[in-house]
Design goal:
3-stranded antiparallel sheet; 7-stranded mixed sheet; alpha/beta
Length: 394
Amino acid sequence: MSKTIYLDYQATTPLAPEAREAMEPFLDEKFGNPHSPHKMGREAAAAVDVARDQIMDCLGAKNGNLYFTSGATEAANWAIKGTMAKAPKERNRIVTIATEHACVLDTAEYCEKNGYELTVIGVSGEGLVDTMTMGEAMGDDVALVAAMLVNNEIGVINHIDQIGEMARKSGALMFCDAVQGFGREEVPVDHCDMIAISAHKVHGPKGIGALWCADGVKPAPLLHGGGQEGGLRSGTLSPALCAGFGAAAKLMADNRFDDEAHVEKLWAIAVDKFGDHWDINGSDCARYPGNLNLRLDGLDAGRLISETREVAFSAGSACASGSGRTSHVLKALGLSKKQAQSSIRLGFGRYTTEDELSEALDKIIENAEHQLPERKVEGDEEHIEDEIQLEDDA
């Protein structure tokens, strides 16, 4: 292989050429501050407004407000801390799910350490939350419910519409981390009060995300200063990043069905390649097919990644990479530490070709067999036994 084959789309995605093209003018001659009143500033501000509309269209939001942030981590922190800061005293509890992204769980735990109550709901062996259990956790003391649309590690999809309806009936606000689902899966905007999204997960630039808030929802500011974003979020916006995000979002909306068909084809190739010896972590049907998390018991995933240098893939969330901690998502599924360490995550999408994927998977499987030669031997023995049986039948 002459170049690295990239199979880590959940960590980040390649920058779309259209997004790069949209950014370039604002890196060169159109470098004005979008908050300045002169012509260059107004041009930059106009580009920001266009991007905001493009992102809202892709999200499917007909109303509400979109506030640009430095990324989804800031958006999640803002949504959770900002909501709890304004919550009535009698509503002092957060309800969330054990498989949420670290930016949600760690922020919720921060709030708990600062006097708020926290309820974390477990999931099934398929990684899905039981809506009945979620419903039982609701109450008139809940201020915020936080639930992810598409899980970043195992790709499973939760029923955000149902969870959001439960939150609404209990009088709580509903926050959804839609980072992995934005532009790929239907985001149930009407059942949410706040939604976090990120540009670099949809072929846009790194360093920019957004928090969408329904009409009337205004979390307390996380950053103080000039209040450039609707008086709620301070900091000078980058017109280049906004333009890149907008162009990437428009492309996601325009190409959604083509991207979906391509990814489903890649999923079928991958599942066929790995066969029955590998187990899929999480539901194999209630999921986004561009995420394939699987395990081979006894495998050292870290060693496999190190030995397969021609392919970029991971053992889980890039945010937790190198921490030494067992994946909290795989642990929530009931997997042992050893099983979690035998798991790999493959992510593919628009710019992954079928030939590239096949080539990469062959290399991964080959290196896994070198690590666990008995797997290959067992397969050969089974094949030999089948041939003997056929001869006996003849």
